[in-house]
Amino acid sequence: MPPQPQGGLNKPGGQLNAKHKTILGCGGMLAAFLVVGMIAAAVSPSEAKPAAAKPVPAVTVTATATVTAPPPAKAPKPSPTKPAAPQKARVPDMTGKSGDLLVEALQKAGFTDGYRATSFHDVSGQGRTVFLLTNWQICDQDPKNKTVPVTAKISVGAVKFGETCP
C-alpha cells in the first residue's frame, strides 16, 4: 500500500477539510474577541481614579435692591360684536359643461370646497353613481345664476357625455 499524505484520505498534504476550517475559524474569532475585551478593559474609564478635589473658597455676596412694580393695567371691556353675516357667492350656470368645471368655478367664486358644495346624481334613470366628474355632463343644477351662502349645497343632475339630458 502506498504511503498516504498527512492531510487525510485522497487529499494533498496542505489542505484542510471543512471540520478543521470551522474549528480554526471559531478559534480565530474567539481570540479576536478576547483581544478586543482585554484592550477595552485596559482603557475603561470606570477604573480611572478621580482627581483629588481642591477646596473652593467660600464667597458671600449680598445684594439689596428695591423694585416698585407699576399698578396692574385694567383690561378693556370687550365690545359686543355682531355675528358675521355668512359669506355669499354667485353660483354660475354650468349646464352642458362637465362636473369638474362646476367644482372649479365654485372654488373660484368663494366656496371653500367646490366638490363638497355639490351633490351630483344621475338623471338618466339608470341610477348610476357619479364618480369621475370629467365624464359627466351637467343637465340641470339648483341653484344657478344666483347668489347663495358659501355653505349652501348645489344639487346637480348629470348624464354621461354622449347621452341626452332628459
Please outline the helices and strands.
Elements: H1 18-42, E1 88-91, H2 99-109, E2 118-122, E3 136-142, E4 146-149, E5 154-160
Parallel strand pairs: 2-5
Antiparallel strand pairs: 1-4, 3-5
Question: What features would you describe in this structure?
Answer:
With 166 residues, this protein is an alpha+beta fold. The chain is built from two helices and five strands, in the order αβαββββ. The protein has helices at 18-42, 99-109, and strands at 88-91, 118-122, 136-142, 146-149, 154-160. The strands form two sheets. Strands 2-5-3 form a three-stranded mixed beta sheet, with no helix packed on it. It has a two-stranded antiparallel sheet with strand order 1-4.
Write down the secondary-structure element order. HEHEEEE
Largest sheet: 3 strands, mixed
Tally of contiguous helical segments: 2
Tell me, rounded to a whole number, the average pLDDT.
79
Distance between the termini: 108 Å
Rg computed from alpha carbons, rounded to a whole number of angstroms: 44 Å
* Low-pLDDT runs: none
Across the major sheet, the strand order is: 2-5-3
Strand content: 15-25%
The backbone outline, from C-alpha atoms, is flat
Brief description of this entry?
By secondary structure, this protein is α+β, with helices and mostly antiparallel strands. It has 2 helices and 5 strands. The protein has helices at about 20-40, 100-110, and strands at about 90, 120, 135-140, 145-150, 155-160.
